[in-house]
Design goal:
The protein is an alpha/beta fold. The protein has 15 helices and 23 strands.
Length: 516
């Protein structure tokens, strides 16, 4: 789906596609406002980012935005009227998948762009250089945090004073690891997530701390994930060590021993093919699918042409737009893997007495999004136009270059946790309502959909895409800006969330099953 802003900068509205039944308000519009470009007069107050009907729509008729169906009119709608939750609802319909019809050869750039990366001994490339403290279970979270806190630069600056090339020591704790099926999917996914973090290139070394009696035994984690203790991975439990105080002391001692080696890194020029970016959107609004998301998609297209990789996720938030992705699937097998995950989600929500159309959120609706179909179509724009080369499950390793789809929930911390476990060494996060999010050990860039948000929340936003809405920028020029910021961030430039210290609390593995 290509997004084109058709109206000029002086217009009060944005038309995305000639066949659309609605246009989007650039600013708040009062009743009686005449929209010359559409030949309509506004009826009632229209908030910024919200939809206005451009033609009469009968009750029961489909409503189109992006030249795609976003729902069904629940009552007759006249030209100029506000189109939102009071007169538009989710509707199910058959979608034409046309598998592979949108596949095209990738035009690679030679030579590719470069960034200043950290090359590990095994050839993997990092964008950051952390030491991580992971936990097997919630019961060891306090001890793990105490260990990492001893190395906080804002509290104990002397602890890392001799190690300027170490970005920090972070504890990534969670609320799971016990009271679950010892042979079930929930434990398998938790271990896969922890294993992905333990192997992540952005960690110079990792310490795993357990309690001792939990379901998620450290040796079981190691066996499932093919991990082994050594110079960059150490593990022990509170019960074996003799209590919390001794555990913290031992953990601090181990990290002291890891710091010297971790500090022996130098950033060198490496190809952009070593970047894997996880794509996120949160706090979306009516502008998301017009500005920040397609601009990020343009940056993804550039990254793929330079040999890099991107990971699109959040299955409940591509629901209803999956046909746009299967058209880009490089094979019927890849398309079927995606559709299989859609069917899994339909069954998952049904058995939990939910439905796939329970989105958008209250904030999304306030920003102008009405149905999950509308939200999904805008969210998919983050992936650009490149081919879909693979589909993986939550926290599975991303193996292919290009665009991979990872099955995750729509809840951003959980989704990004899966992407990082899969190997993402950078996150790009678009927002229209505002977000304060970070992700360790991978830096997270936040992109605002509108300039009003940028002006209000510059503390948390790294780049403003609102010029696309205002008419002063194009999707392509902002996409180039985002791509250049990706390279700079991968080279070590700090993001707003890193400056604020975000990243530890945002580690949230997906809990799928019953807590016993």
């Amino acid at each position: 789906m290509n997004t084109t802003v058709a109206a000029g900068a002086g217009s009060a509205v944005i038309r995305i596609h000639p066949a659309d039944d609605v246009v989007i308000a650039r600013r708040q519009l009062l009743g009686g406002t005449h929209v010359e470009s559409e030949g309509i007069t506004v009826s009632g107050l229209i908030p910024p980012g919200h939809k206005i009907a451009v033609r009469a729509i009968a009750a029961g008729a489909p409503v189109r935005r992006y030249n795609q169906i976003i729902g069904t009119a629940t009552q007759d709608i006249a030209p100029g009227q506000h189109v939102h939750t009071h007169n538009l609802a989710f509707s199910s319909f058959e979608r034409a998948h046309e598998v592979g019809s949108g596949v095209s050869p990738t035009q690679y750039v030679d030579p590719p762009a470069t960034f200043m990366g950290i090359v590990r001994d095994d050839g993997r490339v990092a964008t950051r250089n952390y030491i991580g403290v992971l936990t097997s279970v919630n019961c060891s979270a306090t001890a793990a945090r105490a260990i990492a806190d001893r190395f906080r630069r804002d509290i104990h600056p002397e602890m890392l004073a001799d190690y300027p090339h170490v970005d920090g020591v972070v504890a990534l704790t969670h609320g799971a690891g016990c009271a679950t099926d010892s042979e079930g999917e929930d434990l398998l996914v938790l271990r896969r997530t922890l294993g992905g973090y333990a192997r992540h290139a952005n960690f110079a070394a990792v310490l795993v701390v357990g309690l001792g009696c939990e379901t998620n035994q450290i040796q079981g984690l190691m066996a499932q994930e093919g991990l082994a203790e050594g110079a960059r991975l150490q593990a022990f439990s509170i019960q074996d060590t003799g209590g919390t105080a001794k555990t913290v002391a031992r953990g601090v001692e181990i990290i002291h021993g890891l710091l010297k080696q971790a500090n022996r890194v130098t950033r060198v020029p490496v190809p952009a093919s070593h970047i894997t970016v996880g794509l996120q959107c949160g706090g979306s609004d009516g502008y998301s699918g017009i500005s920040a998301n397609p601009a990020l998609g343009a940056a993804v297209d550039r990254l793929v042409r330079h040999g890099g990789s991107a990971v699109l996720s959040e299955t409940p938030e591509i629901y209803g737009g999956e046909h746009l992705l299967t058209r880009r699937a490089v094979s019927p097998e890849v398309a079927e893997k995606l559709l299989k995950r859609i069917r899994w989600w339909e069954a998952y929500t049904a058995r939990n007495h939910m439905s796939m159309d329970n989105n958008p959120s209250a904030g999304n609706k306030a920003g102008g999004l009405t149905t999950i179909l509308e939200k999904s179509l805008g969210a998919i724009a983050k992936s650009g136009t490149t081919n879909l080369v693979d589909v993986v499950e939550f926290a599975e390793r991303v193996k292919e270059k290009g665009l991979t789809y990872m099955d995750t929930p729509g809840y951003d911390p959980v989704s990004a946790t899966g992407q990082v476990a899969g190997g993402a060494n950078l996150i790009c996060f678009t927002t229209g309502r505002g977000s304060a999010y970070g992700c360790a050990p991978s830096p997270s860039l936040k992109l605002s959909t509108n300039t009003a948000l940028w002006l209000k929340q510059q503390d948390d936003i790294d780049i403003d895409c609102g010029g696309i809405i205002d008419g002063g920028d194009t999707i392509d020029t902002v996409g180039e800006r985002i791509f250049r910021l990706m390279l700079a961030t991968a080279s070590g430039q700090k993001t707003k969330s890193e400056i604020h210290g975000y990243g530890q609390n945002e580690f949230v593995p997906w809990q799928l099953g019953a807590v016993m």
